[in-house]
Amino acid sequence: MKNQKIKRQATRTILGVSLAGLVVSSGPVVQANPIDLPQNVSEKAIYGHGERNDFLAERLLGLEISKDMIPGSLRAPENNESNYAEDEEKIKDFNDSERYRSTQLEQGGGVSANFDNLDHENEFIDGFRYRSLEPSATSADMTLWGIEIEFDKEKSQRTYTNFYFTNTGLLGPLVGVGNIPANGVGENLSVKDGFKDPTYKASSEIEIIGSRAQRNFNLYANEEDLKYINSIENKNTVMAWQSNYLKDNPNGPLWATQGPSSAYGFAVNPWPNENDMLSLIKLNGSHNKKEFVQGQTITTDITIENLDDNARKRLVGQVYHPITGEIVPGAKAYINEQDKVVIEMPKGAVDENGNINKDSIFYSDPKYKALQNLEVKFLARPRTAEEFTAIAGANEGTYTETGAGTEKISHDGKEVEVDLQGIDRYDHYNLIGKFNLNIDDTAFHDQTYKTKDIKTNELIETTSQS
Questions:
Q1: Which is nearest to 329 in space by CA: 360, 298, 308?
Q2: Is the distance from CB of 149 to CB of 122 less than 8 angstroms?
Q3: What region, left, alpha or beta, does residue 403 occupy, with left being phi > 0 and alpha being psi -120 to 50 degrees?
Q4: Span 427-455, pLDDT tens digits
Q5: Quick one: pLDDT band at residue 22, thresholds 50, 70, 90?
Q6: Is 332 helix (H, G, I), strand (E, B) or coil?
Q7: Residue 408 pairs with which residues in a beta bridge?
């Protein structure tokens, strides 16, 4: 064979340049030191997949990368965008089994809960508990009746915009008209029956109106009471109201606090990851298409459910490095008009023409070489006082400040002043959902070369540098 001048044009697979798909769970991630291209090859690359290279795997496994070790010219560009995931991490776990406290209210049923005819009496439902007292044949006082209401914010992780009691019936012979003030602190309804000592004398009163035999009972929270309940100084509030029938009433069947027309209820402020009707905002679906990273826009098959107008304003998506948690420069996550998740990828290590892109983090930054996945998260910001007020007003409630103050945050490039509740769940970004963008671990593939015969101009593909 004649001695021919052969120009070897070597092309190699660049670390971490293709997406294997979007999945729910993440796998282990390998961090690696940069592997330089051979000096005697032109900077031209193609995507190739060869057999696993054990010697290359040994170079990659177990190596740690410190930011200080990376030359400035190779580091990923600084990202001044707020890292909302870091803010979400400030929320303390509710307990050993729950990251977030789950609601006991009907999702999508609105911010109010209503209990008829002693339904769930003396049970805590999202921190609200009520109990009634009526005389019996064994009661020391056969005319005494009353109600007890308790709020436990530590149990519920909630703040409130209303509580109420109402009843109606033909109780004219037993009850007069007028207002019934709340009991003072420590004046419980009945020690014998296990009622608690009130910790607060409410300013709201039970109003009894009617004519002839008809009597209507109404108790509604006022702003003063709600301010006390929601104050950061108070974790638990117990209130009580009591009165006496005009005569003994041990056997009913008509009572002031019980019966088919009696009802108790309360209303809450939604958490950031709930919409205005208390539905949980969440991700749904999956996206299994394989993608190459070339700065393209990917419309996934993942949607975000239960978005209302306010939730759309509060929603934000970000793409993170799965190990360091830093925001991936050049990557964006958002939703389109169909509520589908859209990902804008950063520039890849190889452009659409097959040329090496030295400006790409997948080429220049060791943290992104041999990376197996990126993490996408969607979060919802806390609400403003105006947003809370609008929800409460639309549901016959009253929004009150808690004394925790306000905080100005940068949300999606805009300054927003949120109203703090003094409860972690309300005061920080809430996670809506997350998923992984799995990236081909091309660090474990052979380098792919093409040898060009100058005379024939033919390319011969190999996986060896020799």
A1: 360
A2: no
A3: left
A4: 999 999 999 988 753 443 444 434 455 56
A5: very low
A6: strand
A7: 417
